C-alpha cells in the first residue's frame, strides 16, 4: 500500500522551484504534499500530486529531471508521542527510515506523514501487524 511520489531535481538557483511549480500549475496538476531538501548546488523537491504521469511529462518537457518512487503514507495520532509511537515500530524491526515529511489533513485528530524507508515491504508488513492506518492514493484524494 505504497503511494507514488515524484522527486524533481532542481538547481539551487533563484526561481527554479517556482518554475517547477509553474509547470505543474500550467498542466493542471494539484499538489497534495511537498517537501524540499537542499544542498549548496541542488535541491530535491518531493511531491505527491494528483496525476503523476501528466506531471512527469510536463516537467520533463520543461527540462527538469524527475524520478518516481514510492512512500508509505500514514495517519498518525495528532497528539504528543503520536509520531514517535509509529517510529518505534521501525526501531523494533530494524528498519531504517530514510526521510519523512508531513502534510495537512481535514481530520483534526490525525496528522499525515509520508515516509521513505530502506525496506518498504518489511515496513508495510510491520505497520500492518501493528494496525497502523496506512493510506492509499484514494485516501489522499479525500484529505
TrEMBL record:
Signal sequence, renumbered to the chain: none
CDD domains, per the entry: ACT_Bt0572_2
InterPro entries for the chain: ACT-like_dom_sf (IPR045865), ACT_dom (IPR002912), ACT_dom_pair (IPR045739)
Domain of life: Archaea
Domain ACT: 71-143
Protein name: ACT domain protein
Amino acid at each position: 500500500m505504497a503511494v507514488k511520489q515524484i522527486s524533481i531535481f532542481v538547481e539551487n538557483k533563484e526561481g527554479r522551484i517556482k518554475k517547477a511549480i509553474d509547470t505543474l500549475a500550467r498542466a493542471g496538476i494539484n499538489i497534495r504534499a511537498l517537501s524540499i531538501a537542499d544542498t549548496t548546488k541542488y535541491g530535491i523537491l518531493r511531491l505527491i500530486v494528483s496525476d503523476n504521469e501528466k506531471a512527469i511529462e510536463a516537467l520533463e518537457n520543461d527540462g527538469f529531471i524527475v524520478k518516481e518512487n514510492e512512500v508509505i503514507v500514514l495517519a498518525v495520532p495528532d497528539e504528543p508521542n503520536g509520531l514517535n509511537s509509529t517510529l518505534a515500530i521501525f526501531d523494533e524491526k530494524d528498519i531504517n527510515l530514510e526521510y519523512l515529511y508531513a502534510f495537512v489533513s481535514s481530520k483534526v485528530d490525525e496528522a499525515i506523514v509520508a515516509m521513505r524507508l530502506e525496506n518498504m515491504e518489511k515496513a508495510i508488513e510491520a505497520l500492518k501487524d501493528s494496525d497502523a492506518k496506512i493510506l492509499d492514493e484514494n485516501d489522499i484524494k479525500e484529505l
